[in-house]
Amino acid sequence: MIEIPKFTGSKAENYQLCVKQVEAMIAGEPNLIANLSNISALLNQALTDINWVGFYLYEETSNQLVLGPFQGLPACIRIPLGRGVCGSAAAEQTTYLVKNVNEFPGHIACDAASKSEIVVPIVHNGQLLGVLDVDSPSFDRFDETDQAYLEQVVAILTNTL
């Protein structure tokens, strides 16, 4: 059984604890879906003021992102590359930090309650695997601290592949 710690510190302290937990949880586990499931559950516990956290996986045959493991309300199942925040981050293979999703051209509203979003692409050996997507019901929820630590979580994941 995996024990989830209490995340009661500052944002940086919670992320540091979360990073250690991710490393411990996925060490030696080769199954991508199992690792993504546990990472999304852990992030859901560690992060405050979020309403969705999960993964979209790249499907090369359709050139789309397909819903993967997540925590939150039901979500969009397919997102074409280049569309919305997730599709744009995937196409450009760069992190998108969106302070107000209503101002993002072509935003795909899977949950009308979402006001801000951060999307981190998952790239391994130059190949797009998917994205980590985190939404919040508050404007301006995510910052450079979130970006740095979420990119670190994705790096830990890709290092196990």
From TrEMBL:
What is the protein's species of origin?
Answer: Listeria booriae
Q: What is the lineage of its organism?
A: Bacteria, Bacillati, Bacillota, Bacilli, Bacillales
The Swiss-Prot or TrEMBL record describes its family as follows: Belongs to the free Met sulfoxide reductase family.
Q: What's a single GO MF annotation on this record?
A: L-methionine-(R)-S-oxide reductase activity
Query: Which SMART domains does the record cross-reference, listed alphabetically?
Result: GAF
What's one Pfam family the UniProt record gives for this protein? GAF_2
InterPro entries attached here? GAF, GAF-like_dom_sf, Phosphatase_reg/MetRdx
| Chain segments annotated as transmembrane | none
Q: Where is the GAF domain?
A: 31-161
Name it. Answer: GAF domain-containing protein
